[in-house]
Design goal:
heterodimer; A: mainly alpha; 10 helices; globular; B: mainly alpha; 0% strand; elongated; Protein YIPF (chain A); transmembrane (chain A); Yip1/4-like (chain A); transmembrane helix (chain A); Yip1_dom (chain A)
């Protein structure tokens, strides 16, 4: 069998290569091994990735960077800061700190999971965590709106402040919805985009409602 | 397989401990591969796990055999026990991983629900409009589309409208509790009443499946959404009653007609449709009154200081407006 002799010769070559390299690890691992770099490099690399994604949300043009390297750090930070800012905004402040935070947290993550499942069931090509990543990062305009609302409420809580808050929240709500639609709708079959956009609209509407009806004590 | 066996055999000659960690460390490689899920679904990940497990098992068996022999020679009894311990831990880790990924690919298989979400926007719009038109032919079974996208979106819309209604009614409320109550009410109604009517349909020999019942009741909530959206923004009580009878009645009539067409026998039809009509209309009434500020005044006049618990939790009304509300509520109650 002449073919088998060829096969046996090619088996000898890797044996020679591994004998001369005594470490014994696969070569791809050596190239991507990040175990020996200083901790600062690791943290800065992750921070830069998160920051780049924030910039992508601010200017939602079509790019695949947000989708390709998904991470959930940004959504976590945004969700926690939004939930913290939404605390203490109700009439009975006796035992409201805990449940309020948990409610916001659960609503954001549960809503994002439902939207992701919905878009996958409708035939989307995006994966689970990528969609969670996009939806979480697009909460950023609403977090900015929450900051602005708190600052406005420090000044006063009359009708004018309500109108200002309403305009700001509406603008940020539109921005969030547009940003997430720009990323998510393209992964759907073209005739079903409306079916995917509607739950995203509802999701950000509920978050905007929570922000708008926030009254500090 | 031959190349892989040869490779691991020669690597074991030099690798020793590092090679065992490679065998156990292929779990780390698994995690990295999990990052690269662009476009893949849960089932692909399950398959990928299967393939990697098979490769790992081959490598682990090859490594275990080679490493045990040579380390027994080199290091004596102590080395052998250490090696065995590491092998056992390795096998346990892989066994657990195998079980976990099998359970994962079983329960996270959302493809079971995929046929129920296979709709086009035009179909959804047509079904929404149809849900307000009662059918006339009740002599042969009417077709019900077993689709879950429209009903699910309608339930979420109802939750959003309830929240919006609380904002426009200008009551100071505890957002957290109310949000949970709104979601729980709407989902509880949809799932609970569907199950109950399905059970009654089973008793009354009606031809309807659970998905069809969920779909029917879900689309019946479209009338509720319209009514509440309008009456939360325009606060006329008489307007609400007109909408309640008109819009609510139409959607109830449609559901009742569809059920009647699928049931045989007068008593059974009466039981089934009476229950559904009563629950549907009463739910709309409850939604309007539970989240509307005037009701608190009525309850105050009717029941005195003993307020029902859910009112106490849900709402705080400034004391000044309470007197005004009481008098208007009394006037309306007298007028009714």
């Amino acid at each position: 069998f002449p073919d088998l002799t060829d096969v046996s010769i090619s088996e000898d070559i890797p044996v020679e290569g591994e004998i001369t390299v005594p470490v014994g690890s696969h070569s791809p691992d050596e190239e991507f091994s990040t175990l020996d770099e200083p901790v600062r490099d690791t943290i800065m690399r992750d921070l830069k990735a998160v920051g780049k994604k924030f910039v992508h949300v601010m200017y939602p043009k079509k790019s695949s960077a947000l989708l390709r390297d998904w991470d959930l750090w940004g959504p976590l930070v945004l969700c926690v800061s939004l939930a913290l800012m939404l605390q203490g905004g109700s009439a009975d402040s006796k035992d409201d700190g805990g449940p309020q935070f948990a409610e916001v947290f659960v609503i954001i993550w549960f809503g994002a999971v439902v939207i992701t499942l919905n878009s996958k069931l409708l035939g989307g090509t995006i994966s689970f965590f990528q969609s969670l990543c996009v939806l979480g990062y697009c909460v950023m305009p609403l977090t900015v709106a929450m900051l602005v609302c708190r600052l406005v409420l420090l000044a006063g809580s009359g009708t004018i402040s309500f109108i200002i808050r309403l305009i700001v929240v509406l603008a940020m709500f539109g921005w969030s919805t547009l940003a997430s639609t720009a990323f998510l709708a393209d992964s759907q079959p073209p005739n079903r985009k409306a079916l995917v956009v509607y739950p995203i609209f509802l999701f950000y509407f509920v978050i905007s409602w929570m922000i708008l009806t926030f009254t500090p004590q | 397989a031959a190349g892989g066996g040869g490779r691991s055999g020669t690597a074991a000659d030099w690798g020793g401990f590092e090679d065992n960690m490679q065998g156990g460390g292929s779990a780390v490689i698994d995690m990295e591969n999990m990052d690269d899920t662009s476009g893949s679904s849960f089932e692909d990940m399950g398959e990928m796990h299967q393939r990697m497990k098979e490769e790992e098992e081959e490598e682990a068996e090859g490594d275990a055999g080679a490493a045990e022999e040579e380390d027994g020679e080199f290091l004596g009894m102590k080395g052998l026990r250490g090696q065995l311990g590491r092998q056992v831990a390795d096998q346990m880790w892989q066994g657990g991983k195998r079980q976990a990924s099998r359970a994962f690919s079983l329960y996270a298989n959302i493809d079971i629900l995929r046929p129920y979400f296979d709709v086009e926007p035009i179909q959804v719009r047509a079904r929404l409009l149809e849900s307000m038109i009662p059918v006339k032919m009740i002599n042969f079974p009417q077709k019900i589309a077993g689709e879950l996208y429209g009903p699910l979106m309608l339930v979420f819309t109802l939750v959003a409208i309830l929240l919006h209604g609380m904002k426009t009614s200008d009551t100071i409320i505890r957002e957290g509790t109310l949000m949970g109550t709104a979601i729980g009410t709407c989902f509880g109604y949809w799932l609970g009443v569907s199950s109950f009517i399905y059970f009654l349909a089973y008793l009354c020999n009606a031809q309807i499946t659970m998905v069809q019942m969920l779909s029917l009741l879900g689309y019946g909530l479209f009338g509720h959404c319209i009514t509440l959206f309008v009456t939360y923004n325009i606060h006329f009580h008489s307007l609400f009653y007109i909408f309640w009878l008109g819009v609510g009645g139409l959607s109830t009539l449609r559901m009742v007609a569809v059920l009647v067409s699928r049931t045989v026998g007068h008593t059974q039809r009466l039981i089934l449709c009476g229950t559904l009509a009563a629950l549907h209309m009463l739910f709309l009434l409850y939604l309007h009154f539970a989240y509307h500020k005037v009701v608190e005044g009525i309850l105050d006049t009717l029941e005195g200081p003993n307020m029902p618990p859910f009112q106490r939790v849900a709402r705080d009304i400034p004391v000044v407006s309470n007197g005004v509300l009481n008098t208007t509520a009394k006037a309306i109650a007298l007028a009714l």
